[in-house]
Predict the 3D structure of the following.
Amino acid sequence: MLKRALENVLTIDEIRQLYGSFDLIGDIAVIKIPDSLLDKKFIIAKAIMDNIKTVKTVLRQVTPVSGDYRTRELEHILGERKTLTLYKEYGCIFKVDLAKVYFSPRLSTERIRIAKIVKSGEVVANMFAGIGSFSILIAKYQPNSIVYSIDINPNAYDLMLENIKLNKVYDRVIPFLGDAKAIIENSLKGFCDRVLMPLPEKAIDYIDAALLALKSKGVIHYYTHVHASKDEDPIEKAASEIDKKLKLNYKILDARIVREVGPRWNQVVLDLLINKN
Ligand SMILES: C[S@@+](CC[C@H](N)C(=O)[O-])C[C@H]1O[C@@H](n2cnc3c(N)ncnc32)[C@H](O)[C@@H]1O
């Protein structure tokens, strides 16, 4: 899509530099532009808007995601001055404010994978829920499940409330605002069949809280970032990281590379079947 949009305004080499740096979220395009192409940012934005008719706004990602809320700085380049949009995924609709919360359309395959493996009657905790995308997809695909959906960012929490209403899952997605560890300790000890940890930066520090949330047996979806050189296997590295940490019976049900997050950096998910007995 990006290639077609830029063919007439950039060289092949310049287009290549932009590869993998473009996201379409509802009617907003977000693009990372390397310094060498910054003087062409308006031409690039115009080409995107001219070729992808659904795009109403082009934003440039200025900084990487950072901080507890995992937000990023964005610069408006062209089109409507807004950061709020509606994004559709697998029959769900999500209101997202790209300036105030974390959101990535690149996790959509992983979100639907998880939604499809949740079983009838399960109680799930999503420790780092953002605007509620994993939680709501689970509730839609497995209507006989309950998802406790936690986020510490008040803006993400407010959007999660709106998204729960928009998708009519108020009886199945229970929102919490606050620190996942504190909420589990206070309200969810031993409650859950499944725990999602979609925040690689904190997963290892929060695994004890995830274990606390589980019933005597259950599944943890553990997300981590792994750097692997050419002759290293990112999945093996992630498995070794968790093996050093877990001091109880567990089995890896599934292990996957979710996506590349940088040169030689991968986001890996381990589906861990835990037996506390
Ligand atoms: C990478 S985002 C996950 C987004 C979401 N799972 C999705 O697919 O859109 C991580 C989220 O964790 C939240 N967060 C960070 N620290 C937290 C904590 N201690 N307890 C609960 N949520 C936290 C951030 O506000 C952010 O929304």
Summary: The longest strand covers residues 214-227. Residues 143 and 172 are 8 Å apart (CA to CA).
